[in-house]
Predict the structure.
Amino acid sequence: MLEIIDKLPEDITDALKLPIEAPDITPTGIVLGGMGGSAIGGDIVKTVAKGRMRIPFEVVREYEPPKWTGQQVLAVVVSYSGNTEEAISFYLKARKAGASIVVITSNGELENLAKKDKFPCIKVPKGYPPRGAIAYLTFPVFRILKELKVLDIKEKEFKEVIELLENSKEVSKGWAKEMAKRIKEKIPFVYAETKLFPAARRWVTQLNENSKTLAHYAVFPELDHNELNGWYNPREILRRSIVFILRSREEDEKMRKRIEITKELIEANTGEIVQVFSEGTCLLSEIFSLIQKGDYLSYYLAVEYGIDPMPVQRIETLKERMKE
């Protein structure tokens, strides 16, 4: 897993070179269907596209697309394996609704369906766990939207991400090694403002899958309207928590004030609060700089627990039993 995390900047470079084919439509909406590590790219694209796109973009983690899916809607179906049952169901229902479809996969039934139905299929390299293929499941989506002229994203943004991740690799690894020792046997809470939500979600899912530990995320400002008041009980468990606050160096004044007040209100009930600031001059860089730190943290926490980060045995067991 460490080698896969190390390769992230290289993988982004390669992902941007993959041949893509966008359908010949002017979409009125875009819906991306996927699960787990195959869906996080949709969160990243949606967040970066907010404020830049004039059409809706929805990420769906279930069996069917929204009712507004139709002939002028682009459905992007993402499944690294190509055999995810929810993604296959999503594909079939989007096809029935008359949507234009693009599939992103390495193999499997979805590739076969796309070929049969003559829909574009972007083939990504085999040999990764889905969560490790984040570059290949994210950047082709950006390129599709750019090709369709519904999202104006600059090549310099992609270049900045690659350079930033390459240059910060060793610093991020060093930080993660030390932090993993501090959070062993603690419950991680990951908080972030809305624009950094994909990074917070990624931190938690990587801790789940790589470190085999429970973790939780929530987003400002919503968490201040409910979760904030939960920091009382159960006291003994809360004392074993560690709160990571993912922060942007471009916070507006209201968000900065909100986060600082929240810290003050909960710090007496937590084990520790750690602030992690993003890097980069564009939102895409900010998100990926935090993802890199979280990915390394999940790996080194697995090392601290003495476990192999690669297997996800319970997930695989569930999939097999669902086939019965």
Q: What stands out?
A: DSSP finds twelve helices and nine strands in the chain. The two ends are 31 Å apart (CA to CA).
